[in-house]
Amino acid sequence: MKPENPFVAVLALVAGLLFLSPVLYSIWMSFQTADAYYTGNIDFTFRNYEMAIGQYNFARYLVNSVIVSGLVTLIGLAVATCAAFAFARYTFAGSNLLFGAVVATLMIPSHITLIPNYLTLAKAGLLDTYAGLVLPAVSNGFAAFFLRQFIRGIPRALDEAAYMDGASPLKVLWRVIIPLSKPAILSMGLYIFISEWNNYIWPLVAIGREDLYTLQIGLARLYRVNPGEDIIDWPLVMAASTITILPVLVGFILVERHLIRGMMMGAVK
Amino acid sequence: MLRRMTPYLFVLPLLGFIAVFTYIPIAQSMNLSLREWDFLSPTKPYVGFDNYRLLLDSREFWNALRVTAIFAIISVPLRLLLALFIANQLLRETLVSRLMRGALFFPSVTSTVAIGVVFSWVFSTDYGMMNALLSSFGLPKVAWLQEPHVALWVLIFVNTWKQLGYDIIIYIAGLQAIAPELYDAAAVDGGRKAHVFRRITVPLVMPTTYFLLMISVIEAFQVFTIVDVMTKGGPAGATDLLVNMLYRVGFNLFDIGVGSALAVLLFAFLITLAVVKSRVIGRKVHYEA
After folding, report:
1. Is A108 in Cβ contact with B267 (below 8 Å)?
2. Alpha-carbon gap, residue A86 to A46, rounded angstroms
3. How far, CA to CA in Å, does A259 sit from each of B78, B109, B138, B180, B237?
4. Nearest CB to B224; choose among A83, A201, A215
5. Do A219 and B275 touch (CB under 8 A)?
6. Chain segment A211-226, per-residue pLDDT in tens
7. ipTM of the complex
8. Helices first, then strands: H and E counts in chain A
9. If we measure between CA atoms, which residue out of A259, A108, A223 comes closest to residue B229?
10. How far apart are CA A54 and CA A56, in angstroms?
11. What per-residue confidence (pLDDT) applies to B218?
C-alpha cells in the first residue's frame, strides 16, 4: 500500500465520519438517559438496552430474527447448491428451460406474490409461524445462478476421478464440489442472511403475533407506539435500532471484503 | 433409470419452491385482479376488467404513479452521478480509500427499518439533527416530514444515502476493468483531468451505467420500507409510492381485486423494463474486451 497524503487522508476520514454521523450519533444516543438527551446533557446509561431487551421484548425478536434468517440461509443454500450442481454438470431434457425459469425469477418483482402467498399460507394454516416466514423466502434464483457459474469453473476431471472410485453423485457434490465452492457458498450465505435479516414487508404481512415479531417488525412497531413525535422516547428507540443494526455491523466488519467481492461478482451477471 | 432421474432430483426442491411461491402466485394475482373479493366473503365473483378501470379512474393511482415517477427521475440520476464521481476518487488500493468504501457501502447492507427510524429522528421537527443544524445557523426550523412539498425529497435523500455505496462498489468494479494503457495514452497526449474523465472514463464505463440505471429504476418502483417507516405515504399522499399504495389497498382496505390489479400493472411495467435491461446489457457488455 502506498503512503497517503496526510491532508487528503484526514479530509477523507472526516467526510466518512460525517456520512455515517446519523448512525454513529444514534448509537451514542442509545447510551444516554432520556432526560439527559432532552435537556442537552450527557448522562451515560444502559437502561435503554435493559428496557428494550426486557420490557419491550427485543431479546425475543432477536432470537426470532436469528432463527428465521438462519433457517432461510441454511435451507436456501442447500436447495440452491443442489440445483446449481445439476445445472452445472448435467444436460437433461428441459435443462435450459428450467434454468431459464430459475434465472427469470431475478427479474420478477416480489410484490406480485405478496397477496397470493398470504392466501396460500393462510390456507395452509402457516400464518403466524416460523415456517410461514421461512418457506416463501427459501428459493433464491440469484444464489442458484451464481453457484452454477462457480461450479462450472471447477475442473470436471475432479468429479470423474471421484466417480471412478465409485462415488455417487450426492457424494461427489458433498466431497468434491462443496469443499471447492466454499468461498462462493460463503458469499451467498452472507448475502441471503443479510437480505433475510433486513426483510420487512413479508414478516409485516405474515406475522400478527407479537412473540413472533422479527427485529425489523419490533423496531417499526416500537417507533410507532406513540403517535405524535414529541413523546417518542428517542434514546430507547435508538437502543432498539442499534440492536437491529449491530449484528450486521459486526458481521460486516468481519467479512466486508467477501461481501463486497460477492456484490461485484453479482454485478457482472 | 435412476441415473437419468438424478439431475431432476437435484433441481426438484428449488423448482418446487419457485413454482409454489413465485410462478403460481403470478397466475393467482392475474386471476384475482379480475375478481371482487375482501379476504372474507365465501365467493369471489368475476368482474372482468372493472378493477383496472376503477384503478385507472382513481386519483389515488395517478398520484402514486406521479410520486413514484418523480422519486425515480430524481433519485436515479442523482445516485449514478454521485456514485461515478466518488468511485473515480476511490480507485486506488490505499487504506483510506478502503475505509471510505467500507463506510459508504455499509448503509446498503444494513436494516432499512433502522435507517428509516434513525433518519426520522434526523428529520424530526423538534429534536432532530437537521433542525438543530439549521438553528445553529440562525435559520428557522422545517417540518421535514410533515410538509407535503418537502417529505418526498427527504425520502429521496435517505434512499440515496442508503443505496449510494452499492452503486459506488459496482462502479469501482467497472472502472477497474478499464485498461490502464488508455489512461497512459491520454496522459502522454497531455489530456486534462476533466477531459480524460469525459472522453475515456464515462464512455468506457457505460455498460456499468446501463446496468445500474436499470436496476435502480426497477428498485425505485419497488420502494416500500422506508415509506412505511418514515411517512406511511403522507402527508396528504405526498409520498404515497406505488408499493405503499398496493400494501394499503391489499392489507388495510382488504380490496384484493384492486390490489391485485395494481400488482399486475406494476409487474407488467417492471418486467418490460427488465427485458429491456437484459437486451441493452447483452448488447453493451462486450464493450470493454
Report:
1. yes
2. 52
3. 25, 9, 43, 26, 37
4. A201
5. no
6. 999 999 999 998 875 4
7. 0.88
8. 15, 0
9. A223
10. 6
11. 86
CA distance A192 to chain B (A): 11
Query: Is there a contact between A207 and A131 (Cβ–Cβ < 8 Å)?
Result: no
DSSP for residue B116 = H
Alpha carbon of A265: minimum distance to chain B alpha carbons (Å): 9
Q: Which three cell numbers stand for residue A62?
A: 432477536
Q: Which residues of B149-188 are buried (b: 16+ CB within 10 A; e: fewer)?
A: ebbbbbbbbbbbbbbbbbbbbbbbbbbeebeeeeeeebee
> Considering only alpha carbons, which residue of chain B is nearest residue A26?
B118
Q: How far apart are CA A86 and CA B6, in angstroms?
A: 8
Contact B264, B30 (CB under 8 A): yes
Grid look-up 435491461 returns B277
Minimum-distance CB partner of A16 among B18, B99, B225: B99
Determine, for residues A267 and B10 on separate chains, whether the beta-carbon distance falls below 8 Å.
no
The 10 Å Cβ neighbour count of residue A183 is 12
**Fold assignment, B47-287:** MetI-like fold (1.10.3720)
Long-range CB pairs of B213-217, under 8 A, 24+ apart, other chains included: B213/B76, B213/B80, B214/B273, B214/B274, B214/B276, B214/B277, B214/B280, B214/B281, B215/B277, B216/B75, B216/B76, B216/B79, B216/B80, B216/B163, B216/B167, B217/B72, B217/B76, B217/B273
Single-letter code of the amino acid located at A8: V
CA distance A98 to B13: 13
Largest Cα span, chain B: 81
Pair A45, A233: CB distance under 8 Å:
no
Q: Please, which residues bridge with residue A32 across strands? A: A44
- Tell me how many degrees the CA angle A222-B158-A255 measures, rounded to the nearest 5: 80
Here the cell at position A50 is: 435493559
Q: Are the beta carbons of B228 and A256 separated by less than 8 Å?
A: no
> Torsion angle, CA of B272/B273/B276/B278, rounded to 10 degrees?
-110
Domain extents in chain B: 47-287
Burial tier of A57 (Cβ tally within 10 Å: 0-12, 13-18, 19+):
middle
Nearest residue, CB atoms, B7 vs list A95, A114, A238: A95
Least confident of A7-21, A47-61, B10-24, B179-193: B179-193
Superfamily of domain A30-36+43-267: MetI-like (1.10.3720.10)
Q: Which of B10, B28, B226, B244 to mutate to test the interface with A (most CBs of A within 10 A)?
A: B10
Q: Does residue A173 or residue A264 have the better pLDDT?
A: A173
Q: Higher confidence at residue A252 or residue A242?
A: A242
